[in-house]
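Blinded run. Sample ID left blank on purpose so nobody reads anything into the name before looking at the predicted structure. Input follows.
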Amino acid sequence: MSKQNKTVLFLFINGPHHVYHLILPALRFSALKNEMETIFISGNPLNTKIINDTKKITGLNNFTLIDIPLPLRYRIKNYKNRLYPPVYTRIKKVIKYLRNANAIISTSHNFPEYLSKYEIKKPTLIYLYHGTGTRAYGFEPSLKEFDHILIPGQYHKDRLIKSFPVKDGQLEMVGVPKLDWMKIKKSKSQRLFNNDNPIFYYNPHWKIEFSSYLKWKDVILEFFKQKKFYNLIFSPHPLIQHLSKKTGYELNEKNIVEDNILVDLESDQCLDGTYTSMADVYIGDISSMVTEWVMEKPRPCIFINAHNVNWKGNDDYYIWRFGKVVNELKEFEDAVKKSTHHNDFEKIQKKLKNEFIYSSDKSSSDLCARFIETKLSIPSK
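Blinded prediction complete.
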């Protein structure tokens, strides 16, 4: 078999929020002593930077990096507020690598659909979850097209089994590799505010029809402008900015200048665990970031029910068991005040994190790497 037919591809062609989940499993796999060539494919400069930064931190560099050039329009600063090109434009640039690979590891939910379009059938397809969300999106029957699915823990396993006929050996619990990345990247010396007041971290989801962003952002910003004895990190998912022109809303919060409010719409710190490790209270809606929050350490969570959802008993809102759900401003004010004194949900947070995140004596990234090697039946050197 030629070298070309002995490749394992790790795809970094989605946004940078995907990269933090996949980078360490990919690097750990590249460090294994086997006959396969490891190829990383990056779809934009943001992803490439994270890959290279993590390579330096870990010292693991036994891979080939293919950096897909940006289309010319994306080299224009703030082009439609877009941070990177769509996935489908990246796929067609690397067809020859996809066609010849033995295996492809992707965090892109609908990746098999892209391969089908180009009639690529040879590679073993492995999906790694890029988060621990509980919306129906994460359990769609289309996931059955992957040969193997690397899942966070028992909750996802049980729900996937309910969602479609699962094949033997298709699901493997590996935990959350991003948590490994957060451990090696974590900074304890950084200071975000020039005071010791409690820090609140507002992290709304990017999907506007589920998010609290449009309905509550001004309410939250005004509240913290008035309450100078609290600090606020206002940092929605970067897709909020990325999709703003397409969806038709303005990002007026960019212009806010307040000593106790930090607005961050796109930096590495939006995603790399900085705010998760440094804040005291989480404010959100349906983002799976709350699982990373609880795994870091149990702390108060406030969930905003911006769309008046009848959420109790609804699996899509399962993570709202982690904290206090509020529907209106008065409830929000009460929840904020109480959260600085006590975490009423600490006990259930500890219980739920064990249900959500599989753990073993090996790191999540190592579990991923070894699973890929085993399923491909790669002989070690």
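Unblinding after everyone has recorded impressions. The domain at 3-176+359-375 is CATH 3.40.50.2000 (Rossmann fold).
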